[in-house]
């Protein structure tokens, strides 16, 4: 089982701390949050990019994604190309993007929305050497919506390089079973995010031992696959959560993958 975590769970932490957390807890993948207040952002110089890549690779770690805040369907111009260039320089697996469409079109899957047409244009003109990783989020929170959009890309943008990040807790909170979501998204999944949430508290993120996300069902659905599993610990947005250092060791027990070093 290949495990990773998002640096959203340790906001502002230096690279040394992130590497130490990963190595001490047997996590090999990183989702690097790209923002001006983090060590990963599009303003890095070529030398800084080379150093960052070298240090992560020398630590035996893999960058699953550069977690951008690009909204693929948005009306506004979006810095997609800059993030794709950053991901290429860092040897990352792709660039995480959000759908960011008009919420009023959320349930419209039979006909492409104006936002999806904008996204189609952006994807068609973007470089294809680095994958664009569309997360189940905001306007496209269900696997059904993301799968419909990916199918549109397959038919109208041959040669595109868009894949899906399945935020399994998110689709579950929007009424899909994990098996339903997986079956819908399987052709496009790059990796799978998970976290602990509590359906009795409007799916609020909670400590590992305090929620009811059906992790055993997720592991059953993914049995026999090789998708990396990445912990999306949203401490940046939910400061009530326990620290990531405490959580990573708890995740090992939650998943049943044995003791950490």
Short description:
The chain is built from nine helices and ten strands.
Describe the structure.
The chain has 9 helices and 10 strands. The protein is α/β, with parallel strands linked by helices. The strands form 2 sheets. It has an 8-stranded parallel barrel with strand order 1-2-3-4-5-6-7-10. A two-stranded antiparallel sheet has the order 8-9. Helix 1 (15-24) links the parallel strand 1 (3-6) and strand 2. The longest helix has 14 residues, at 143-156. The model has no long low-confidence stretch (mean pLDDT 95).
Percent in helix: 25-40%
Question: How many E-type strands?
Answer: 10
Classification by helices and strands = alpha/beta
Please summarize the sheet with the most strands. 8 strands, parallel, barrel
Sheet with the most strands: spatial strand order: 1-2-3-4-5-6-7-10
What is the N-to-C order of secondary-structure elements (H for helix, E for strand)? EHEHEHEHEHEHHEEEHEH
The geometry reads as globular
Helix run count: 9
* Strand residues, percent: 15-25%
Model regions low in confidence, pLDDT < 50 over at least 5 residues? none
Mean pLDDT: 95
């Amino acid at each position: 089982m290949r495990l990773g975590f998002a640096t959203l769970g340790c906001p502002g932490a230096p690279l040394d701390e992130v590497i130490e957390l990963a190595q001490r807890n047997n996590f090999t993948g990183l989702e690097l949050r790209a923002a001006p207040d983090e060590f990963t952002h599009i303003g890095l110089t070529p030398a800084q990019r080379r150093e960052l890549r070298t240090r992560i690779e020398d630590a035996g770690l893999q960058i699953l994604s550069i977690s951008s805040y690009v909204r693929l369907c948005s009306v506004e111009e979006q810095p997609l190309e800059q993030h794709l260039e950053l991901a290429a320089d860092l040897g990352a697996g792709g660039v995480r993007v959000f759908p960011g469409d008009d919420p009023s079109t959320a349930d419209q899957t039979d006909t492409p929305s104006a936002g999806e047409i904008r996204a189609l244009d952006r994807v068609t003109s973007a470089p294809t050497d680095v994958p664009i990783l569309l997360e189940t989020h905001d306007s496209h929170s269900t696997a059904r919506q993301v799968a419909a959009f990916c199918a549109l890309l397959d038919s109208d943008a041959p040669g595109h390089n868009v894949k899906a990040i399945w935020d399994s807790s998110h689709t579950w909170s929007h009424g899909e079973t994990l098996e339903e979501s997986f079956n819908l998204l399987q052709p496009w999944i790059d990796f799978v995010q998970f976290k602990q949430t509590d359906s009795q508290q409007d799916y609020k993120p909670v400590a590992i031992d305090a929620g009811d996300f059906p992790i055993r069902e997720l592991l059953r659905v993914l049995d026999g696959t090789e998708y990396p599993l990445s912990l999306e610990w949203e401490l940046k947005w939910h400061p009530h959560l326990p620290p990531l250092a405490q959580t990573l060791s708890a995740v090992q027990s939650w998943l049943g993958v044995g003791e950490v070093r």
